[in-house]
């Protein structure tokens, strides 16, 4: 379904168009030959390890840094040249943002609102982001997740068409992270386009319609998370436990199976393709194999990253 959505979205004019950008800092080539397009209403993720060039790319698109080469357009404008025209139409959450320790939540929202000609209702925004009861709290007293939610609120104060989110949930606990994911989905539902970065593969898998895998400043591949997994890691694994003596032989007759290994009563069945799991289930049922335990192991974006770059994203 995500794929269908992505295909449908790509037929309309892209909201963000990045073509062959390069950015160096002295001798460090931070970004090279990076190209991608983001369609209206899409959540597009730049994913890669620390130092891969995600923030550099994002901040070039936001107009905060200038690429040495290449072209970028956002809403058909040049982010650097047309910065004033664009700033009312985009919302930015930076990777390492801070506010004054003793600014109150409502004051920050008021201040941000005053920068734009048509801000949304700040109180309503705080309510939507679950910060209504913190409106009088000092910034320094907020938890990590509350600070992030405030930064999302500030990025949304001008009702932007395009929202940029850099490492939104880094450092948050799983519960706060999930809450933020729901917020981001809500932003998309309101018709916004989102360009985000993350080095959390689970975040990319759950949130992004499409992702660009970026490593050492270059894009390695771009697609929906599902397509990346099925294209690069078609392997599937079923692990089950049975005391049926003929089980191993039966599993070997399944055409999609590449290997069956056994340890005591536990069998690991490896193969490829989406049919593997249902074929194993069919075999178990056809031969009335009594199964005490059954689980599947599906590859994920982390496996794709490892396959494409030769190293883990956590290195
Ligand atoms: N302002 C700067 N001056 C010099 N070098 C920089 C600057 N910003 C980034 N770099 C370098 O460029 C490379 C890419 O950095 P960037 O911040 O874009 O990576 P990232 O993918 O966002 O990493 P992280 O996941 O840690 O946020 C790194 O080698 C970094 O040291
Ligand atoms: Mg970064």
Explain what the structure shows.
- The chain is α/β, with parallel strands linked by helices and 315 residues long.
- The protein folds into 2 domains: 2-89 and 161-230, Rossmann fold; 234-298, 2-Layer Sandwich (Alpha-Beta Plaits), CATH 3.30.70.980.
- Helices cover 35% and strands 28% of the residues.
- The protein has 12 helices and 13 strands.
- It has helices at 2-10, 54-62, 83-87, 105-114, 122-128, 144-156, 174-189, 201-207, 225-232, 247-252, 276-286, 301-309; strands spanning 16-25, 28-38, 43-47, 69-74, 90-93, 162-166, 193-198, 210-215, 218-223, 235-242, 257-263, 266-272, 291-297.
- A 6-stranded mixed beta sheet has the order 5-6-7-3-8-9, with helices on both faces. It has a 4-stranded antiparallel beta sheet with strand order 11-12-10-13.
- Strand 6 (162-166), helix 7 and strand 7 form a beta-alpha-beta unit.
- Helix 9 packs across helix 12.
- The longest helix has 16 residues, at 174-189.
- The chain is elongated, with a radius of gyration of 23 Å.
- The chain starts with a helix and ends in a 6-residue tail after the last helix.
- The mean pLDDT is 92.
- It binds adenosine-5'-triphosphate and magnesium ion (MG).
- Magnesium ion is lined by residues 54-55, 95, 166-167, 197.
Chain-wise SSE layout:
Layout: H1 2-10, E1 16-25, E2 28-38, E3 43-47, H2 54-62, E4 69-74, H3 83-87, E5 90-93, H4 105-114, H5 122-128, H6 144-156, E6 162-166, H7 174-189, E7 193-198, H8 201-207, E8 210-215, E9 218-223, H9 225-232, E10 235-242, H10 247-252, E11 257-263, E12 266-272, H11 276-286, E13 291-297, H12 301-309
Parallel strand pairs: 3-7, 3-8, 5-6, 6-7
Antiparallel strand pairs: 1-2, 1-4, 8-9, 10-12, 10-13, 11-12
Helix pairs in contact: 9-12
Bound molecules: adenosine-5'-triphosphate and magnesium ion.
């Amino acid at each position: 379904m995500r794929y269908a959505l992505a295909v449908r979205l790509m037929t309309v004019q892209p909201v963000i168009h990045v073509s062959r950008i390069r950015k160096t800092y002295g001798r460090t080539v931070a970004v090279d030959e990076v190209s991608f397009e983001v369609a209206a209403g899409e959540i597009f993720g730049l994913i890669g390890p620390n130092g891969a060039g995600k923030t550099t790319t994002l901040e070039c698109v936001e107009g905060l840094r200038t690429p040495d080469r290449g072209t970028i357009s956002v809403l058909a404008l040049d982010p650097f040249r047309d910065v004033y025209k664009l700033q009312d139409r985009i919302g930015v959450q930076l990777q390492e943002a801070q506010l004054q320790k003793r600014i109150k939540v409502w004051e920050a929202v008021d201040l941000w609102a005053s920068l734009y000609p048509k801000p949304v209702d700040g109180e309503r925004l705080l309510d939507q982001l679950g910060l209504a009861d913190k409106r009088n709290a000092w910034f320094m007293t907020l938890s990590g997740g509350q600070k992030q939610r405030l930064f999302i609120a500030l990025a949304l104060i001008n009702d932007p068409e395009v929202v940029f989110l850099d490492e939104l949930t880094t450092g948050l606990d799983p519960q706060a992270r999930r809450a933020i994911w729901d917020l981001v989905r809500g932003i998309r539902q309101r018709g916004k386009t989102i360009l985000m970065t993350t080095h959390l593969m689970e975040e990319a898998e759950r949130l992004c319609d499409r992702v660009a895998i970026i490593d050492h400043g270059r894009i390695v591949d771009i697609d929906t998370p599902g397509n990346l997994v099925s294209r690069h890691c078609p392997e599937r694994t079923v692990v089950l436990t049975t005391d049926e003596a003929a089980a191993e032989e039966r599993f070997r007759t399944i055409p999609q199976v590449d290997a069956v290994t056994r340890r005591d009563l536990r069998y690991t069945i490896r193969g490829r393709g989406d049919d593997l799991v249902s074929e194993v289930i069919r075999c178990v049922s056809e031969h009335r194999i009594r199964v005490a335990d059954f689980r599947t192991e599906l590859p994920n974006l982390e496996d794709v990253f490892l396959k494409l770059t030769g190293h883990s994203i956590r290195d």
